Amino acid sequence: MSVTTEHANPAATAGRPAPRANRLVSTRAGGAMVKAYWDNLFTARDRGATVVWYNGAAINPILQAAGVEWCHGEAFGARLAAMHLEGPAQQAGEAYGYINELCSYARTTLGCALLTKKEALGQVEMDQSPDMPSKEVLAARLPPPDLFVNAYAGCSTGQQWDEVSYRLFDKELPFFKVSYPLLWGNKSDAGYLRGEEWDNASKYVAGQLHDLIAFLEHKTGNKFDWEGLRESMHYIKRAAQLRLDALELCKARPTPAVFWDWVASIAPINFLPGNQALVDYFQGVKTEIEERLAEGVSALPNERYRLAFDGIMNWNKVGWLANKFAEHDAAVVCGRYTHNSFWHEPHLIDEDDPILGMAQHYLLCPFNHSAQNLAEQVLRDCETYGIDGIVFHATRTCRSATNGQLVLAKMAQQRGMQTMFFEGDVADESFYKDEILQSRLEAMLETIDVQRTRVS
């Protein structure tokens, strides 16, 4: 067989230039929305707004209805990494004592907290440094917080993250923590969205959200806008359903959109305001996919393999990875991070009384499940999208993302799917080794070819 030669240099073998991923154009509108959101946040202090720093679940509809501005720490860390501007923040964090084995999201935004505090005290002079261009002062532009809220499921580091930020700001600011129980799946009736454990955990978290609202009312002096929350969740539910409809369209062969397109669409559904603009964005994404299907336009010009991606993205490498897989005619169609989080069960949302449905979505963090529920979701997607193999991104500084991956890989192999692992990270490019990804990807694709030959 000649599969080894083909995948070692697919461009030379096929006599064509290496293909590039045909990314959706509509996702660019999301980038503009995200930039506008951050630019607005940077001026929050000038406008006299109350600023909340938070991490974890998408509690922004609650913050929106409380009349405050919000900063999602992970999102800002991802933005810096995607722009390759994470260096100053990570250096500040490491100089303070946060080693590079700490979650790189946390290390980045804790560095931002240090720089923000120094900026407020007039101690940041990064624009004068010849080694740090003026654009890199972005890491110091966050407005200092008035309040902290922690809302992290499935990750012990995340649950301590805001406590560390609280200490960095001298333990002087109000701090509220929402506790999410892990869904262990130990009871006999346990399952995805079902069972006594699920019902009890849902009610427990809903009660804490009511306490959070009371906390915000007390600390801000603002009466909570319940009608505003209902309106926000109305838009989020519509946007989430459009997103699901668009994902469903990607069952087509060849697929009209890939995992990397859905990565680009995370920010809007994760932390932007619930409004008509959010609905319009996902309507635009769905419409472009429908047009591609009607016109026979695919995400890859010569789709040959359909893969799933398990693990958080490294935001430094999105474009590089998209093109790397495209060079091998491998369409990454779905992933746990994109397809099983971010308001992905919109039927749970009751627009008239949204708190319980919100609590349930927060519990559905893709790292908060038992192995049984995790496998149920991921392997269901593999069947839905006709997946040949799973690429496991073993995220170096995110243990919660990698927990369960070996178990999941074994279960996938038992169903006849091929698997591969490569090590990387969410916001620290130094953990990637391009050669390792290349060799392991080629080996998996060769095995898929052999498997197909045997079946035929």
From TrEMBL:
Residues 8-20 have a biased composition (Low complexity). One of its GO terms (molecular function) is iron-sulfur cluster binding. Gene3D superfamilies: 3.40.50.11900. The keyword Nucleotide-binding does not apply. Keywords: Iron, Iron-sulfur, Metal-binding. Residues 1-20 are annotated as: Disordered. It holds the Pfam family HGD-D. The keyword Transport does not apply. Belongs to the FldB/FldC dehydratase alpha/beta subunit family. This is 2-hydroxyglutaryl-CoA dehydratase, D-component. It comes from Paracoccus alkenifer.
